[in-house]
Amino acid sequence: MNYQFDNNIPIYIQLLDNIKTDIICGKLKPGEKLSSVRELSTQFKVNPNTMQKALSELETEKLIYTERTNGKYVTEDEKLIEKIKKDYAKKITNDYFEKMQKIGINDSEIIKYINRKENT
Amino acid sequence: MNYQFDNNIPIYIQLLDNIKTDIICGKLKPGEKLSSVRELSTQFKVNPNTMQKALSELETEKLIYTERTNGKYVTEDEKLIEKIKKDYAKKITNDYFEKMQKIGINDSEIIKYINRKENT
Amino acid sequence: MNYQFDNNIPIYIQLLDNIKTDIICGKLKPGEKLSSVRELSTQFKVNPNTMQKALSELETEKLIYTERTNGKYVTEDEKLIEKIKKDYAKKITNDYFEKMQKIGINDSEIIKYINRKENT
Amino acid sequence: MNYQFDNNIPIYIQLLDNIKTDIICGKLKPGEKLSSVRELSTQFKVNPNTMQKALSELETEKLIYTERTNGKYVTEDEKLIEKIKKDYAKKITNDYFEKMQKIGINDSEIIKYINRKENT
DNA sequence: GTGGTCTAGACCACA
DNA sequence: GTGGTCTAGACCACA
């Protein structure tokens, strides 16, 4: 499996989002141990420093924590994960509505777009 | 009127989006003459080069055209505007669904988020 | 002026603390422009990346902000600075008391140590 | 009893401080025999090597001594303990004042912070 | 083996 | 000129 990076977004952000998404959607379980920085960087074919940067950002968000000389783990705080998930969902829903309204598409028209999408 | 720029997105992109949105939602009418680059750059408080770059991108998209020595105008091609509007609306609807699904939120849950938003 | 680094503390933390202290005590004023990353790294004789790391940590704390292609500035939010100052002062006061009590020195004895210090 | 370690300070330092504090505050009496390294490492849930390192540092400071094949003991030199206690107290008092002054809090303001703390 | 730090230096977009 | 990103690779403490 070979990851494709979007050239317009910094790689460390894409790595970060990738792992974050895995935590939020439950693919990475609370308390689960992550692969080592070295392994992950090999797997994603990036420099260890780049991976380290992505992971340390996740750590400041408290989504992962480090046991020194041992490894990195997904937070056990399930409420935090749930909160981040809901906040994120609300945010992108808001952003979506904002963008639609900005180009002059009102609520009832938005529903049409959504229904068309739903019935695919 | 003072525009607030998001420091993480190139200013010329933000300018471009701004004007594009105005055309799509009809605030700028088909065939309407734009202010001069100089005026626009003063109005948005940006470097004229930056404004120039934004406008030339819009010109590549054919949303505006230049009459030499006379100024820049919104395209008169209403079908083009309509098409860009619909394509854009579909695209952001798709993006929205994709993002929600990525974090493990399925269609019926998406509807909940949308309803909550609708009833605000 | 040549900075001496403590070998047991990461350099970027020491840089960060240094600048943070300058902001908190008012040596760097709210809204003041910082020297460029390159200048600062020359001045402190560290690698630009190390300085960059220190500064970006200060940015996540919102004590500084970046104007792209322009430079970095001290936050204009004086309340935030004041808050960070007070929180920090409370924290080190608490830490001090805790440490003293841990080695079996009670409040009245602490006062003696403080008075002796005060009258120096 | 389960010790919580701060991940940013080497565990052996935290163990060392812990035992040192117990000696200084009298919880461990002069001449008292310590538990075996094996017991201590089980009790603190650390690797025996780590506990060994902590103890050997304490031995360098002469706060404990080893009777070969018999075990480790707290020093009987009460003056030494008293001296270390006072030195430590002075040191952290000095450090405290230094830190406060560094962020621009003068002596009279320090007193306010202390009084507020005292009256809790 | 684990994570953390740091350097040297290249390269980039933007203004 | 400004900040930002990324790589290659060394070195370190800790367990």
Brief account:
The structure is a homotetramer of 120-residue chains. Chain A is 59% helix and 7% strand.
How would you characterize the overall build of this protein?
4 copies of one chain form a homotetramer. By secondary structure, chain A is mainly α. Chain A is 59% helix and 7% strand. Chain A has 5 helices and 2 strands, in the order αααββαα. In chain A, strands 1-2 form a two-stranded antiparallel ribbon. In chain A, helix 2 crosses helix 3 (48-60).
List the main descriptive attributes of the protein structure presented here.
homotetramer, 120 residues, mainly alpha, 2 strands, 7% strand
Give the topology, please.
4 copies of one chain form a homotetramer.
Chain A: H1 11-24, H2 37-43, H3 48-60, E1 64-67, E2 71-74, H4 78-102, H5 107-118
Antiparallel strand pairs in A: 1-2
Helix pairs in contact in A: 1-3, 2-3
The structure holds a DNA duplex (15 and 15 nucleotides).
Assign the structural class of chain A, choosing from mainly alpha, mainly beta, alpha/beta, alpha+beta, or little secondary structure: mainly alpha
How many helices of chain A in DSSP terms? 5
Oligomer: homotetramer
* DSSP E strands of chain A, number: 2
Strand line-up of the largest beta sheet of chain A: 1-2
Alpha-carbon Rg of chain A, integer: 18 Å
The largest contact between protein chains, plus residue counts on each side, is:
A-B, 25 and 25 residues
Terminus-to-terminus distance of chain A: 28 Å
| Mean pLDDT over the residues of chain A | 92
Q: What string, H for helix and E for strand, traces the elements of chain A in order?
A: HHHEEHH
